[in-house]
Design goal:
The chain has 392 residues and is mainly β. The chain is built from 2 helices and 27 strands. A hairpin with a 4-residue loop joins strand 14 and strand 15. The longest helix is centred in the middle third of the chain and has 8 residues.
Length: 392
């Protein structure tokens, strides 16, 4: 992961006093006191879904929590917790506060200098049916309905000194591809149809909610890598738009190497498309038509790319890569646990004690590994384990 200055974000920590989950309102807490133990350490015990951990420095982590009181209806609240455990605090109390607007935030990413943060706001989750109707007839008749789809994300930058509120000019609106209206002449009742492509990232977003779009900073703090679900993008905050990295088709979950030479990412490999044409009818006849293509997720593969797209490496099956501080190895998820592999390729080695783990994050000194572990109810808790071979 990215190198951080010791003590970065201490100003935010002071502002977070109102966010204690253990002692007083407004936050409820199921976290436990600090325990000085060796081996894997569970940091959160809330039974909520806690995801996308990232190191804020050598001693603390940020993550996203679902349904945290007093944001019980919220899908994503950014939190902070010590790497040794204890009470969790709100990370952006000036932006997410009791009585304020409900925001679905995920994937916090502090800049290398610690003076800024990037994070993704989930936006515009729409009903996949699009058309209210009494009856739906599809060809082929056994076509499965497509689930609701994500139509837009927003990438925000926040200055630490700004108290947690992003400035409007520091946000990037990212429409997600997959739906368009195609006009057709000659039919007054059906002037056109919706063309819908249900890409693999949409399926994974609804089934697993992994860090598909997560931002990650260039080690010089000049650019941010992220994904729109179909490719890896680079954004210079001084620019009004992002640029695609060549050769990253299907690329999600990017991670910039600490030396700035590579971007690791997960490549979602599409399976065979399944097409269907569906007509939606009301009392007076047809009201809407959809031409749909649904893509299965055939494979998830770890790949490396130069920032300019000039060279690409494939490292085998896996997802959610994270770098060691020396840029020599990666930790990633495969078969429901974590593995490590050389950036130059070769055989992967399982990381002991990480069964059920995903979304790895390596501490700045390379000595500890944070991740989330799957609970029996489909939620995740945050863990930290000692890590050997993490580099320096």
């Amino acid at each position: 992961m990215m190198r951080m200055r010791r003590g970065a974000w201490m100003a935010l920590g002071a502002l977070c006093a109102l966010g204690c989950r253990e002692a007083t309102a407004p936050f409820d807490s199921a976290d436990r006191p600090t325990l000085e133990v060796e081996g894997p350490r569970q940091l959160t015990f809330s039974a909520l879904d806690e995801r996308t951990p990232v190191w804020l420095g050598p001693d603390s982590l940020a993550y996203a929590a679902e349904g945290l009181a007093p944001f019980a209806e919220g899908r994503g609240v950014l939190m902070k917790i010590a790497a040794t455990g204890g009470a969790a605090e709100a990370l952006l109390p000036a932006f997410q506060f009791p009585g304020g607007p409900s925001r679905w935030l995920t994937s916090p990413a502090p800049s290398p200098a610690g003076d800024r943060a990037a994070y993704v706001e989930i936006w515009a989750v729409a009903d996949g049916q699009l058309c209210p109707a009494i009856a739906v007839v599809c060809d082929p008749s056994g076509a499965q309905p497509i689930a609701s789809r994500l139509g837009e994300i927003r990438l925000h930058l926040m200055d630490r000194e700004g108290g947690g509120s992003p400035e409007p000019e520091r946000s990037l609106v990212v429409p997600l591809e997959g739906r368009e209206f195609v006009p057709v002449r000659g039919d007054p009742f059906l002037p056109g149809f919706f063309r819908i492509r249900y890409y693999p990232f949409q399926r994974l977003f609804h089934e697993e909610n992994p860090p598909l779009f997560r931002p990650d900073w260039h080690p010089g703090g000049t650019r941010v890598a992220f994904s729109d679900g179909l490719r890896v993008l680079l954004w210079d905050p001084a620019s009004p738009q992002a640029e695609a990295v060549p050769g990253t088709d299907g690329g999600v979950s990017p991670a910039w190497s600490p030396n700035g030479e590579w971007i690791a990412f997960t490549r979602l490999v599409r399976g065979d498309p399944i097409a269907a044409s569906c007509t939606h009818s009301g009392f007076l006849g047809p009201v809407c038509r959809q031409e749909r293509v649904d893509y299965e997720v055939r494979d998830r593969r770890i790949a490396l790319v130069r920032p300019d797209g000039s060279e690409i490496r494939e490292l085998g099956s896996g997802e959610e890569p994270a770098w060691t501080p020396d840029s020599g190895r990666l930790v990633f998820r495969r078969d429901g646990r974590l593995w490590t592999v050389s950036a130059g390729g070769g055989a992967a080695t399982p990381v002991p004690g990480t069964e059920g783990a995903r979304e790895p994050a390596i501490s700045p000194d390379g000595g500890r590994l944070a991740y989330v572990r799957l609970l029996s109810g489909g939620k995740h808790d945050l863990w930290v384990v000692p890590f050997e071979g993490g580099g320096s």
